[in-house]
Amino acid sequence: MTEFELIARYFSRPCPDDAVLLAGGDDCAVLRVPTGEALLVSTDVLVSDRHFPANTAPFDVGYKALAVNLSDLAAMGAKPLGVTLGLALPDIQPEWLNEFARGFYSLAAAHRVCLVGGDTVKSPVLSLSVTVLGSALPTQILKRSGAVVGDLIAVTGTVGDAGFGLRAVLSPKTIPTALARHEITYLHDRLNRPTPRLAEGQKLAQFAHAALDVSDGLLQDLTHILTASGVGAEISLIDVPLSPAAQTWITAEPRAALLPLSAGDDYELLFTVRAEDWPRIDFKATVIGRISAEPGLRVRDAQGHIVPMPAQGFDHFAAQTPPR
Amino acid sequence: MTEFELIARYFSRPCPDDAVLLAGGDDCAVLRVPTGEALLVSTDVLVSDRHFPANTAPFDVGYKALAVNLSDLAAMGAKPLGVTLGLALPDIQPEWLNEFARGFYSLAAAHRVCLVGGDTVKSPVLSLSVTVLGSALPTQILKRSGAVVGDLIAVTGTVGDAGFGLRAVLSPKTIPTALARHEITYLHDRLNRPTPRLAEGQKLAQFAHAALDVSDGLLQDLTHILTASGVGAEISLIDVPLSPAAQTWITAEPRAALLPLSAGDDYELLFTVRAEDWPRIDFKATVIGRISAEPGLRVRDAQGHIVPMPAQGFDHFAAQTPPR
Q: Would the pLDDT of A73 be above 70?
């Protein structure tokens, strides 16, 4: 199969979006950005055995590659315009490609975003490079740098699930026996099929001060907001929202209680808002702390004591064990 | 060095472009697309030892990664708006990164295009994924599909140089002794530092019917225009523009005469125009043939005989020897 045949077979679904003037088959894709809106762009690279276990189901690889990129648009309050995919493959396995494309397109269709272009090349290592394009009113773009002293700090959904899901995949023997099978499935799904919080981000863009998506770990990502905004923060460990599955795990293994602070890959939105704007939030979100003038980040336990910081999130070049 | 330190050290040069509202440091970059213009986007992936020899100078790797992408904008007549870089690295070699960044930024500065975002990850194999963003008036976008019977077929610059340059790198012993040292250097440079024909593309967008950039090989790329436009073509081998270095090589090794038809990587613009528009061209370009109603592509030699087609361009998944 040639590169052209591969693209024709797996990556040429019709695009019903009339903002996409030309997709595929030429040197560039051509899109229309809504009048008055700015263009947003983000690129993420995922490498097999590094960003996802090599035995991850191809459906999930395709799903997640798009999800983590859409999440970057969500974090700034943008609407998706289109996506390009750079696919580096060791070889052509029709079944793998079919499932990969199915996963990718299932999430794309759910958010009405078209695959508008890309590149497919041979490489010894499977890797994916996804670039998402989006748009937003320039006055409604959620940056990391807008947090203000006194702001509530909140997060959508629950955190830590992807971290427990990764542990469940990498070290299945360490899964506490208290976890029901559906809870393990839930944690796997949270790892492999994260939900880009696009609607939430677009709503937050109307009034929130700062936001990002939790990809490196709650504490590390909050630190990015604090650094960009020149403020500090205090958060309360017991307020960090956990799923029933994560709660079951922590009850069975109390020393895992800090994992939700440092594990990445949840792709929930972490944001700051004025307290008086909190009632405007019409989706699941939980206040976990406050922005302070005092620099640094303090985590308090149920008794109000400062919790020593765990090792922070995942850094690709740090001397720590990567996921395998 | 962490990923953040790496980006800060090598990939955080200031952006003087006021169309770039936000570059780096947040979840997305934010750009302004000129009012009334469409957005153009293209992604290319380059893998070490596949798209460039593994011993290619890092300056050239950086230069070429950007050049081949800017060339896609040139081929559609667009102006560059910004670029994102996905960099997958086996390890951190400061000298390599420094030179890579120097090559990348030297071409970026020449075309006033800013690196607005990207991702840096660890991978067993060096690979680069570049996404360029550009803009153009929707009525002045050069597609592959507009060729009309009777059009002149022309190409900018000279073709075959990159192909000879690759042979010079891969099999230095086969370089004819007739080639002067500066000619060999010239061929290497054409391989490693292709020139994106941005000004030429923007000019052509005003009147040309169809265009693309020669990346897979002259014949294969011309076939893309013919297929997209539903026409045929006849080209004249002796009219194909060659550099003095390529001419010297072919004189010394006559059986290499067809290499300029099938070698890729020249990144010259191949285009079709009405004969009456030819005088509007104010840059180096050479007519090599005509669009015909008869389907297919015929190449004629100096005596007017049909030349049997050589094996066509480079396909990443075809069963042929990749560059090493």
A: yes
> What are the tens digits of pLDDT across the range A147-191?
999 999 999 999 999 999 999 999 999 999 999 999 999 999 999
How far apart are alpha carbons B30 and A72 in whole angstroms?
Answer: 12
For residue A18 the two structure tokens come to 């009339």
- A23/A47 same-domain check: yes
B323 within a domain of the structure (yes/no)? no
Tell me the pLDDT tens digit for each residue of B113-154: 999 999 999 999 999 999 999 999 999 999 999 999 999 999
Q: Closest Cα partner for B194 from B11, B70, B16, B31?
A: B70
Q: Which residues pair with B232 in a beta bridge?
A: B292
CA–CA distance from B187 to each of B160, B163, B192 (Å)? 9, 8, 9
Q: Which of residues 281-320 of A touch B (CB under 8 A)?
A: 315-318
Q: Of A313, A307, A191, A188, which is closest to residue A257 (Cα–Cα)?
A: A307
- A vs B, Cβ pairs < 8 A, gives 230
- Say yes or no for a CB contact (<8 Å) between A120 and B1: no
Q: Is the minimum CB–CB distance between A9 and chain B shorter than 8 Å? A: no
Q: Output the pTM of the full model.
A: 0.91
- Using CA atoms, how far apart are residues A56 and A63, in angstroms rounded to an integer? 11
Could you tell me the residue range of the domain that residue A108 belongs to? 3-138
Query: B323 pLDDT exceeds 50?
Result: no
**Are A285 and A212 in the same domain?**
yes
Residues B208-217 pLDDT 10s:
999 999 999 9
Looking at A138, A171, A189, the residue that finishes a domain is A138
Of the candidates A155, A191, A98, the one whose C-alpha atom is nearest the C-alpha of residue A287 is A155
Question: Which alpha helices (DSSP H) does B111-258 contain, by range?
Answer: 161-170, 181-192, 198-204, 218-229, 244-252
The answer to the question of residue A66 being in a domain is yes
